[in-house]
């Protein structure tokens, strides 16, 4: 069975050596690649994963251009990328149009790193523009070790955004809420414009809990993901394989749903 990892991270070669240890120290998470594009692609290949979608994050307005240029340059062979905008940047909407032109696959928002709450009025035009451009938005959803006491993207608020923008495709990372599977089940499960990804799920869900949440939400709207370098392909693959889902359902999640959502062939 082929696997495509829809949620990976890497950095420009000149930054990776500093960025990974710094983030790892703040989040108290070990890391499993050297954080570069080349090192990540090599690790995926070694693990037997067909390819990955890198979700980049612009943490300041000034960073947007370089982050998205790096994303565009990184897209070849087994690697594809999302771009990012800083929600409070004056030119965020303009940059979203550039993301579309660059051929990136969507937009990643990480409200913890970008220091905004997803329900902020300032963020609403971003959602409207993404809906208009047909660009999916991947949200870091639920808790985050970066700011563990404050949830910037709670599943109930994300559910309201999904209702407010019915033609926006939302990817609610971490199965709809890291460390918050009950809220994900209560508020987000079953929403037709929401995908869940399995990134980092082996750290907070048992195979039984994962299967329950997948069944509740819908097998056709779950994307296999690891959150590499913060978790590994073997760990997250083992979690999906340990569920009681049928082989064809596992294959949908492993690669078929990503193929139809992104229009790619794995
Ligand atoms: Zn991530």
UniProtKB/TrEMBL annotation:
It comes from Neglectibacter timonensis. This is Amidohydrolase family protein. SUPFAM superfamilies: Metallo-dependent hydrolases. The lineage of its organism: Bacteria, Bacillati, Bacillota, Clostridia, Eubacteriales. The keyword Calcium does not apply. Signal peptide: none annotated. PANTHER family: 2-AMINO-3-CARBOXYLMUCONATE-6-SEMIALDEHYDE DECARBOXYLASE, ISO-OROTATE DECARBOXYLASE (EUROFUNG). Pfam families: Amidohydro_2. Keywords: Lyase. InterPro entries: ACMSD, Amidohydro-rel, Metal_Hydrolase. Residues 5-264 form the Amidohydrolase-related domain.
């Amino acid at each position: 069975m082929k696997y495509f990892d829809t949620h990976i991270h890497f950095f420009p070669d000149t930054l990776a050596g500093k960025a990974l240890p710094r983030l790892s120290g703040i989040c108290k998470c070990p890391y499993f690649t050297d954080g570069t594009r080349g090192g990540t692609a090599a690790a995926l290949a070694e693990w037997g994963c067909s390819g990955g979608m890198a979700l980049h994050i612009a943490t300041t307005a000034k960073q947007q251009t370089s982050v998205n240029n790096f994303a565009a340059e990184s897209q070849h062979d087994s690697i594809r990328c999302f771009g990012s905008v800083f929600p409070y940047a004056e030119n965020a909407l303009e940059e979203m149009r550039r993301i579309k032109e660059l051929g990136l696959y969507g937009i990643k928002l990480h409200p913890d790193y970008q220091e905004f709450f997803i329900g902020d009025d300032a963020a609403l035009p971003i959602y409207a523009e993404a809906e208009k451009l047909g660009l999916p938005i991947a949200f870091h959803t639920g808790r985050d070790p970066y700011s563990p006491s404050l949830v910037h993207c709670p599943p109930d608020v994300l559910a309201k955004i999904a209702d407010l923008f019915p033609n926006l495709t939302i990817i609610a990372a971490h199965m709809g809420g890291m460390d918050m599977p009950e809220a994900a089940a209560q508020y987000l499960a079953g929403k037709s414009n929401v995908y869940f990804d399995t990134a980092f799920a082996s750290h907070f869900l048992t195979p039984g809990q994962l299967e329950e949440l997948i069944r509740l939400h819908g097998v056709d709207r779950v994307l296999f993901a690891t959150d590499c370098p913060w978790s590994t392909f073997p760990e997250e693959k083992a979690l999906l394989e340990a569920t009681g889902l049928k082989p064809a359902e596992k294959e949908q999640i492993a690669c078929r749903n990503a193929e139809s959502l992104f229009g790619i062939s794995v």
